[in-house]
Amino acid sequence: MYAQGLIGSSQDTEETPEFLAAFQARIDADEKIEPKDPMPAAYRKTLIRQIGQHAHSEIVGMLPEGNWITRAPTLRRKAALLAKVQDEGGHGLYLYSAAETLGISRDQMTEELLSGKAKYSSIFNYPTLTWADIGAIGWLVDGAAIMNQVPLCRCSYGPYARAMIRVCKEESFHQRQGYEIMLTLSRGSDEQKEMAQDALNRWWWPSLMMFGPSDGDSQHSDQSTRWKIKRFTNDALRQKFVDATVPQGEKLGLTFPDPDLKWNDDKGGYDFGEIDWDEFWRVVKGQGRMNVDRIAARRKAWEDGAWVREAAMAHVEKRKTQMAAE
Ligand code: FAQ
């Protein structure tokens, strides 16, 4: 299943009860697991799945905002958006590299994305209709990404944890630039404020869906938490996000599209309405408004880039021949 010759592609150690107990003891002691360490096949598989999907999300996530680079309202906005979209591309690359340390190749991950076998975040299957969507994505989507990713800096797998440190620093700048766009619009003309409100109305629920199914329906949470890949459950992170974000929205003078959203003194957090899980699963299964376009764009990019990969490989072969002759 895994590419030959890559780090971590060696046979996993026989999974005796003693081996599994010793592995769990390392995790419980907060030791980092590194690429050449023996690890259970299921731990490797779950990391390849999560890191691969995370990488795909960063790369597909460049598309909705990339759509606005040529239409940014000022040079300053354009420069910031260009930098942000490039950062997301960089995050995808660190993450593909982290997944490669587990013995899967970038080509295999790409094939899995294009064939629909590997998922990417549901959020990127919604269209960016106005400039305010760029504000809402930075504020809400990067905000949700940070809430989810800060705990991943303490993930048990070393290369993933280390990649997350830089990613989170950059996401923090993205969140602020998004919030600043929302602040400018919500203090602007009536039309601008309306645009900001409309963007919040459309992006709020999909942002809550980014945290994944509720705890009762999450297939992987229990095992991933035991392995300290995940440090909090999907619902716990979603609640933290709501609690952090609602006061920010109030400061903007905007309202959230949820009549059930209200502060609950007893729990020390906000109550909020039920997520439309049918919509979530429809989008995850490929029936969102932009799923077909997103995969078509990635397929085109992969095909258009074939000559670059071929040229790079030809260069490697040439260097190998030269070095053998030296
Ligand atoms: N969309 O059992 P669980 C970003 C799938 S990066 C699509 O709870 P798990 C930066 C899940 O894969 C955003 N599928 O799964 C940016 C699983 O299916 P599988 C991405 C989803 O892994 C900002 C099934 O449902 N972030 O935004 C979603 O324990 C702005 C059952 O779910 C990450 O990937 C979903 N929302 O928990 C870029 C962070 N939720 O694999 C550009 C790392 C769940 O069995 C612009 N990942 N599924 O076929 C994670 O923390 C976890 O993987 C979760 C899901 C929390 C996403």
From TrEMBL:
Q: Name one GO biological process term.
A: phenylacetate catabolic process
Entry GO terms, CC: cytosol
List, alphabetically, the InterPro entries matched. Aromatic_CoA_ox/epox, Ferritin-like, Ferritin-like_SF, PaaA, PaaA_PaaC
For this chain, one GO molecular function annotation is: phenylacetyl-CoA 1,2-epoxidase activity
What name is this protein filed under?
A: Phenylacetate-CoA oxygenase
- Species of origin: Pseudaestuariivita atlantica
Give the classification, highest ranks.
Bacteria, Pseudomonadati, Pseudomonadota, Alphaproteobacteria, Rhodobacterales
